[in-house]
Amino acid sequence: MKPFHPAGRALLIGSLPLSDHVQAWDIVCRYTPEIPLWVQLPAFKTEGMMVQFLPGLPGLAARSNGFIMDTGSETFDAELLAFYEDYMEWIEGRKGIDPSRFVLTPDTAPGFFVLLENIPSMIPGPVALKGQITGPITLGTGLKDSSGRSVFYNEQARDAVVKLLAQKARWQTLQLKRFDRPVLIFFDEPALAGFGSSAFISISRSEISACFEEVIAAVHEAGGLAGIHVCANTEWSLVLEAPTDVVSFDAYAYFEKFLLYPERVREFIHRGGILAWGIVPTLNPEDIDRETADTLASRWAHQFKAVVALGVDPERLLAQTCITPSCGTGSLDVQHALKVLELTRDVSRKVRSRAS
Question: Do 60 and 134 contact (CB within 8 A), yes or no?
């Protein structure tokens, strides 16, 4: 992998409050053409954060309130065996890319195929390309087994979840690498906000680290860069110590919490890690209405100085910076979502002017 230096470029997180994928693509091209991504539209039930990446799991079963991994069914052991057989054929190259349980499909991820279709006609061409997928901690703790327990606590089920996500991320990387641009794949991990709480009391750091190592390795093996996105506060040392290339965090609301790990932040940047500063708010419409590109650029500049004060070279830090919304905009109304994208673009321009 060649080093990638975003140098303050704008990047989106993933979702928009629309119901038309072509319209969503046009909006991406309008605001973040240098690093386009495929868009998830939560208006479609099949594009929910977890549902979109569930196909291919052994024991997957629909229930009135969603999906479960039916580990108690009579066929589960056979389905699990078939899963691992497919997995071994896949990673050893004995099975073609399509069809496979490890790929995205137009019916579950149409935005990805809109991206693939339109990249060749982009003028000028993109600097990099971005994909995303639900992270293993979020999917593993959010998906229940037949007893109503999170599948993360079932080692067999958890391993299947991790391997499925790893290979779907790898597949995304391989598809996007065809365009000869750096590829970023973000693992979205909102559930990490719960680490250390009673809900996560029996989940260890080593278990989380092992999950990250496996999914990130799959992206690296395919020639991509891996990112971890957490849209709230968490135990940031867990993320910063992972072999991830990008840490995407809510700099608008949680920068002070993030800076509670100064040594880890400094080490991450020194090893070439990219900070994706979620400086544009997405949680509260009131914040979006109040802020301007100038106020947010000023806020970011103060944060930038605080990181430099840790012993980081400012030119290096700027080279390893992306400007993003704090999270996706799929839960906002269209007007506020578009303002978030406009602010992200305009703050990025102000940040990049520092390097010129």
Answer: no
